Each structure stands twice: as structure tokens, then as C-alpha cells.
């Protein structure tokens, strides 16, 4: 059985997680920071929060994918 790190860094998992992170992260940034961005209020603190906003769906997608792959592999004879 592959380790967590091997699965989490595999091409398919990374590609899927990046896709979800970009789409969901962009939506969340618009919801949470859209008004400030329209006013031109972009400082390092807000930028850090925006990076975290994109990281969260990446992490959720990665953890979910690795869990599903491990479950699938454990069910195989």
C-alpha cells in the first residue's frame, strides 16, 4: 500500500486538488474579500488570508482523495 505522501503528491490527486482549490478558492475570495478588493484594500495581511482561502479547499480535496484511494486499495483482494 502506498504511503499518504505518495498518494497526496501523485499527479491525479494534485491536479484535482488544484482545480478545486482554484474554483472554490476564487468563489470564497469573492465572497469574503470582494468588497475590500473593489475598494483597492489589498495589504499583506489580506493577501495572506486569501492564500489560506485557496489552501483550504486544496487540503480538503487532497485529504478526501487520499482517503478514497486508501479505502479502495484496502477493499481490493
Briefly, what is this?
The protein is an all-alpha fold. The protein is built from 3 helices and no strands.
Task: Provide an overview of this structure.
The chain has one domain (4-75). The protein is 84% helix and 0% strand. The protein is mainly α and 77 residues long. It is built from three helices and no strands.
**Strand count, sense and closure of the main sheet?**
none
Number of domains: 1
Query: What distance separates the N and C termini?
Result: 12 Å
- Tally of individual helices: 3
According to DSSP, the number of beta strands is 0
Radius of gyration over C-alpha positions, nearest whole angstrom = 16 Å
State the helical fraction.
over 70%
Low-confidence stretches: none
Order of helices and strands: HHH
Mean pLDDT: 94
Approximately how much beta-strand content do the residues carry? under 5%
Oligomer: single chain
Coarse structural class: mainly alpha
What characteristic shape results from the CA principal axes? Answer: elongated
Amino acid at each position: 500500500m502506498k504511503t499518504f505522501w505518495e498518494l497526496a503528491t501523485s499527479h491525479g490527486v494534485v491536479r484535482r486538488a488544484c482545480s478545486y482549490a482554484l474554483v472554490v478558492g476564487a468563489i470564497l475570495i469573492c465572497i469574503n474579500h470582494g468588497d475590500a478588493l473593489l475598494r483597492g484594500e489589498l495589504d499583506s495581511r489580506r493577501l495572506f488570508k486569501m492564500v489560506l482561502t485557496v489552501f483550504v479547499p486544496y487540503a480538503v480535496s487532497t485529504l478526501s482523495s487520499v482517503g478514497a484511494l486508501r479505502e479502495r486499495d484496502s477493499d481490493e483482494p
